[in-house]
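From the shared-data thread, chain only:
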Amino acid sequence: MRLITFKRNGSTTPEIGARLPNPGGDKILPFADCAKLKKVENFPIGMKEFLRAGSATMEQAKSWVKTAHEEAASILLDPKAITYLPPIIDAEKFLCVGKNYRTHLEELKRTNLIKEIPQEPTSFIKLNSCLSGHQAKVIRPKGVSRLDYEPELVFVIGKRALGAKKEEAMNYVAGVTILNDLTCRDLQLREVASGSRFWTAKNIPGFGPLGPEIVTIDEIPNVYDLWMTCSVNGEERMRVNTSDQIWKISDILEHFSRFIPIEAGDMFSTGAPGGVAVGKENAEDFYLKPGDVVECSIDGISTLSTTIVDEV
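Structure, as tokens:
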């Protein structure tokens, strides 16, 4: 199932639903309308609440999706009638695990962005205020000339985890989505030099394109045999398999849930693969410019699109 958060054109109210892929044209199933049609009361209206409602609610939604074209055709929406929002707009915790691809570590060492390889998972916080949705236009602020792309696989947690063990980790995962962890390299280099842990460079408004959807984990045969790709204006810039990750979600969830409860709706982004602009010898030619269309993909599964625009 492809879970989305969206708003209808002309509305400011976030809703949740599912994208129904179809060769003849995708459709959007709004859960609020479906619940009304099926006479289901008190169905969750937000993605975090939906995930926290548990497996029975998830299975109910899957049953709606399965029969949508036959039993709910009258309420299906055209994707052109909606605006995608980040799949989860109000996560309590969005932790981004850094330095997690072997290929990317080599780039970081060459560019002096790291001095040593961490011996356990490390992370920084991605703020909700920086998130943007699929097909969003992201403003490159004035004074920023080195805007970089970073496609990342994100794990969405589906139930509370405290003291989770490695062998149980996948039982807590509801699904995966994609983050383009846009980074202002100009600012990042200054933050690294000063020892800052906040990473303003990654939390500028709009610098967290997320989505377009949460692909439920039952649709992913093997999360560690996925190709993460990034294309700019149709030109592929990187292609790296998730098997290159150092810390798997089992390591990550066990590490971070030792003392802090990880709740349904929390997310873990698992790091940038190798191939980002800053790691290239002619990096200046690859930094993002106004007008660039960036597509980050889990190859063959889902694609997140972003257009870069200049600050007016």
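The mean pLDDT is 93.
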